């Protein structure tokens, strides 16, 4: 009898399957409630309109890569944007700053009285309990090997920031990353359909349309999406910039369009070939790429 009761209490495979789909359904309902039309999340953790960075790294080292890139970004933001805090909770910190200043002297006196080891250990434990400050750079991990993202405030010019890092790496032959290959700026994200991609490129590339003597190329990649093709993207964007010449070797700017499932990341980058496709490892080891003779074609 006892054995039978034990077996009855263990859920069968069918029960487990029902429970699994029930939990999945409830989760899907929850997401449908919190996601608006303006901000569509299509897996991968990307949100429409997001700015940030696309990271490629060694397989299995994605988290370490993101951590070192955030450290690198923070260091350079402090130099380029001294007025920009690298912490997301800065406003709250500023409000508490007055109180901290008033109690600073008292805290110093208290530290002097920590004569015993017991008091010192207690003080360290209290310090550890304090909440960690949240960075303005938010990691976005994916289920895709070697691929991660980082979001950041729109007040930061992601193209200028990464270009500086790449140029410094190539000229000084010094890098602060170990597991990271590419750090590509993301100027915007949109749903992975042709009309949304065209509208997004037009929005961020409108200043370039007014300078028809420039050269450009389209770099389009599709991952896990069979509803749109590279050829459709290059043809559409080529028409948009028809007053410009296409240069596949040394363009003035490159339109980067990368589709990940239902989402698309977009950037218009300068010196894409010279900066070795924004590959920090290659720039560190080989420096700037030597420009090849220009090749003009209608498509990439």
UniProtKB/TrEMBL annotation:
Q: Name one GO molecular function term.
A: RNA binding
State any GO BP term from the record: tRNA modification
Q: Which Pfam families match?
A: THUMP
- Taxonomic superkingdom: Eukaryota
Q: Where are the transmembrane segments?
A: none
Keyword terms, alphabetized: RNA-binding
The name this protein goes by in its record: THUMP domain-containing protein
């Amino acid at each position: 009898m006892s054995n039978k009761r034990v077996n009855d209490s263990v859920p069968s495979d069918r029960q487990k399957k029902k429970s699994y789909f029930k939990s999945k359904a409830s989760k899907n309902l929850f997401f449908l409630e919190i996601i608006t039309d303006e901000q569509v999340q299509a897996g991968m953790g990307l949100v429409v309109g997001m700015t940030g960075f696309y990271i490629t790294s060694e397989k299995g080292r994605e988290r370490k890569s993101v951590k070192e890139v955030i450290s690198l970004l923070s260091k350079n933001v402090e130099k380029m944007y001294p007025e920009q805090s690298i912490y997301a909770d800065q406003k709250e910190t500023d409000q508490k700053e007055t109180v901290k200043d008033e109690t600073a002297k008292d805290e110093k006196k208290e530290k002097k009285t920590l004569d015993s080891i017991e008091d010192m250990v207690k003080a360290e434990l209290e310090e550890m309990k304090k909440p960690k400050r949240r960075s303005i750079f938010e990691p976005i991990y994916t289920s895709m090997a070697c691929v991660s993202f980082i979001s950041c405030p729109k007040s930061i010019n992601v193209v200028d920031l990464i270009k500086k890092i790449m140029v410094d790496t190539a000229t000084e032959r010094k890098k602060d990353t170990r597991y990271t290959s590419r750090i590509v700026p993301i100027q915007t994200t949109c749903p992975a359909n042709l009309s949304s991609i065209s509208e997004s490129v037009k929005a961020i590339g409108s200043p370039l349309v007014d300078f028809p003597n420039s050269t450009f190329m389209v770099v389009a990649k599709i991952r896990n999406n069979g509803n749109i093709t590279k050829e459709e993207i290059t043809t559409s964007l080529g028409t948009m910039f028809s007053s410009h010449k296409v240069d596949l070797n040394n363009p003035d700017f490159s339109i980067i369009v990368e589709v990940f499932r239902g989402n698309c990341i977009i950037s218009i980058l300068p010196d894409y070939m010279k900066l070795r496709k924004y590959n920090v490892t290659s720039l560190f080891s080989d420096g700037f790429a030597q420009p090849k003779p220009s090749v003009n074609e209608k498509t990439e």
